[in-house]
Specification:
four-stranded antiparallel beta sheet; 473 residues; 34% helix; 13 helices; disordered N terminus; Arylsulfatase, C-terminal domain; 14% strand; alpha/beta; globular; nine-stranded mixed beta sheet
Length: 473
């Protein structure tokens, strides 16, 4: 080999060695600092039914940010909460356990301090876990073990911009699990309709059509649009800082504060919007009819974070929908419960829902069903319009039927969801469906026994209809 060729090979080797030496440390640093696990963002709205957003068929409301997220991700058409009240619903999400097991059965109850919570599972996988706004119930967030939390008081709207600002200034190199909770569309709704025309909208089933009801409904939609604006600003910050490969889950804690929504076990109380966006794992613009419960979110997130789904909880992971783990995603039956909210919503009920059937057991049909909606006549929202329903019921048989079905519930309710998705025709007394009724009754009883669910409510019931000015919160 000539001397010139040898010099050329030596020079080439030196250049290659220098390239490797300069590149390898950089790659090593990138491997050390780049998250090996997906960043996770959970956005929670407050008091919003699946039926009251465009995903669920409501054409009245404007939610461009939610629709954009829907176009980029997977819509869950059959997602349900564990209970249609704030504290029990959110406690179920953060423990993976149903209310009778986690201890938060009534609204304002706290989950048992001894139960392991979702932040702990994610922290074990190396995550920084942070919450802004209403994630747990008001002023309960500190009991769940977040690394940092802020703005968890009633209608504290500073939490949304605070989350975006915190995210932009964040220096921590750990993978992030960020929980953001909007207070909208929880009452009080905006004082004006903000561009919604009360006369032009289509009212939902089981609604008494009065002028003040239409005004309230328009202001509710204004509140939903404010929630959507919170979602937009949050997603803008997430996409700018964390990127679109972030795992994003949007959902709401239970149904709308409307007479057959919140505090009810009808689908309008327990069926909620849910959308997941995760580039590379979820095909944009898809939908799934897999039935999932909020208790399933905990094991799903743990698996996405690289851990094993915890044993001994009620939640079942649906991560296989995103290509993580194995097994069928979704449930064959959904259980829901409601007890009370202080002395205002004292009406314990339990439910089992399958693909076709809904069975509701009202544990005390001799009690009168009452909520904030009819008791609080001085409230700016439901308390303002519900008296017009009672007035209409004195003259209109259809309005009377709606109002009576609000206050008085039978011991058992059975609905064929295929034929009657709005749950208006109770088939529990129809002999043709005796087999379905008996089977669901038995399965619900077995589930309650396994849960240790006694159905006891430690407050006095009501036997009279509202209003009762000044009572309750």
């Amino acid at each position: 080999m000539s001397q010139s060729i040898r010099r050329g090979l030596t020079l080439a080797s030196a250049v290659l060695a220098m390239a490797v030496a300069s590149a390898t440390p950089g790659h090593a640093r990138d491997a050390e600092t780049a998250p090996r696990k997906p960043n996770i963002v959970i956005f929670l709205a407050d008091d919003l039914s699946y039926a009251d957003v465009p995903n669920g068929g409501d054409a009245n409301v404007r939610t461009p940010a939610l629709q954009r997220l829907t176009s980029e991700g997977m819509t869950f058409d059959r997602a349900f909460v564990a209970s249609p009240a704030c504290a029990p619903s959110r406690a179920a999400l953060l423990t993976g356990m149903m209310p009778a097991r986690n201890g938060a059965e009534a609204n304002h109850d706290r989950a048992n301090a001894a139960i392991r919570k979702l932040p702990s599972y994610l922290q074990e996988q190396g995550y920084q876990v942070v919450a802004f706004g209403k994630v747990a119930h008001y002023q309960h967030t500190g009991t769940y073990g977040f690394d940092y939390y802020a703005n968890d008081t009633f209608h504290d709207h500073k939490g949304i911009p605070a989350a975006a600002e915190w995210l932009k200034e964040r220096k921590d190199k750990r993978p992030l699990a960020l929980f953001v909770g909007s207070n909208w569309p929880h009452v009080p709704w905006p004082r004006t309709t903000e561009g919604y025309d009360p006369a032009a909208m289509k009212l939902p089933p089981k609604t008494v059509d009065t002028p003040i009801t239409r005004d309230a409904r328009a202001r509710f939609y204004a509140a939903v649009t404010r929630m959507d604006q919170d979602l937009a600003s949050t997603m803008d910050a997430v996409d700018a800082v964390l990127g679109k490969d972030t795992f994003v889950l949007y959902s709401t804690d239970h149904g709308t504060q409307w007479p057959f929504g919140k505090w009810n076990l009808y689908d309008t109380g327990t069926r909620v919007p849910m959308v997941v966006r995760w580039n590379g794992h979820v095909k944009a613009g898809t939908r799934t009819d897999a039935m999932v419960s909020w208790v399933d979110v905990l094991p799903t997130l743990v698996q996405l974070a690289g851990g094993k789904a915890p044993e001994g909880i009620d939640g079942i992971s649906f991560s296989s929908l995103f290509g993580v783990g194995t097994g069928a995603a979704g449930r064959k039956e959904i259980f829901t419960t409601h007890n009370n909210d202080g002395r205002v919503n004292v009406y314990p009920m339990r439910s089992i829902r399958t693909d076709r059937w809904k069975y509701i057991e009202n544990l005390h049909p001799d009690w009168t069903y009452t909520t904030h909606i009819d008791l609080k006549v001085m409230r700016t929202d439901s308390g303002a319009y519900f008296p017009s329903w009672r007035d209409a019921a004195e003259k209109d048989p259809a309005a009377k039927a709606i109002v009576d079905s609000y206050y008085t519930r039978p011991a058992e309710e059975l609905y064929d969801l295929q034929a009657d998705p709005d749950e208006q025709v109770n088939l529990a007394g129809d002999r043709r469906y005796a087999k379905e009724l008996a089977g669901l009754r038995t399965r619900l009883a077995a589930w309650r026994k396994a849960q240790g669910d006694t159905g006891k409510v430690p407050v006095q019931p009501r036997f009279e209809r509202g209003p009762m000015e000044g009572e309750g919160d």
